[in-house]
Design brief:
The two termini are 28 Å apart. This protein has 337 residues and is an all-alpha fold. The chain is built from 14 helices and two strands; from the N terminus they run ββαααααααααααααα. 56% of the residues lie in helices and 1% in strands.
Length: 337
Amino acid sequence: MSLAPCCSLCGASRGLARCGACKVTPYCSRDHQLLDRERHATHCKAVKRAKAVVEHEGQKLREDPGDGFAAPPNPFETSVGYFWGILSTRDYMRARYALVEAILKIKTFDAVRSAAEHIRDMLRLCRSDNMGLRDMLPALHLRLGRDQDAYDFIKWYETTGNDSHYDWGDMDLPYLDVVNADVFESPKYLCGQYNNLANLVCVALLKIKLLLDLVALLNSCSLGEKLPRELLDRVRHFIPSTEPVRKISRNMPIADHTDLIVKLSSQVDQLYVAVAKLNRYFWPALLNPGAHLKARPETYSPGNKEEMQLKLQYCFDSWNETPGSIDFIKTMSRSKK
């Protein structure tokens, strides 16, 4: 089911107000909040506790006079970009990561948006990303319908971020500055032996979303041959689509839709094979996640089962919330046997 702002009990989208404690669970009325209280309480209390720890650790850092050498005073003002490299910031960063994990236990649009904002800010505080947050953010963007942002983020990390000459300690260098990269371009640059599994999987999902939207759009255009233009425009307005497809569909001839569908189909196939080569456990686990979603791997190596479990946990909800995407992979898996 696609993620959207709605009441956590009934799914209504109007008159929403958030839970005053966790701030990420909306309800359409006080009555529905009370009815949902027992179910919501566990995750809500966990978020509230995690927030308190973050505020406590943050206040400690702001009041820290520093040691005049390795620990500067108030790193929020003096050391943005260098967190984690400063030992005194690590408890704060760990606490904030725990808050993100607690927030993501709540399956709402507001929760995903809040988690994405926390991760983006943590990357601002620590560019070198010693905690692997960059593997989590693209999937969250996809869940929010921010497909272009997801691709821009991945594009930067797989190009500039992979440049061995990039100085992560130079805060004057451009950082995450890719904007409106071509989501329809070839994914070949992602399909090497040492590419990031999380990024590859997210781009595969994005391409499938684009492909499914284009097929729906093409079908609507075929329907349009039998409908008055005014009615067709009204129908097309309500067809769910990704932002990139909305942009190109305004002036693209129907024949070009077909060509692009063929192109995307080939790209998805390329990405499917690349993911299977990087980690042979991933696609089978996506189709049958089971206990993998609750595993807590402490370490992993490229290509092993623990890597699959961690990356699957980062992205599974984004697949599950994209109608047709898992069935698409299921069909591909059958054809590859």
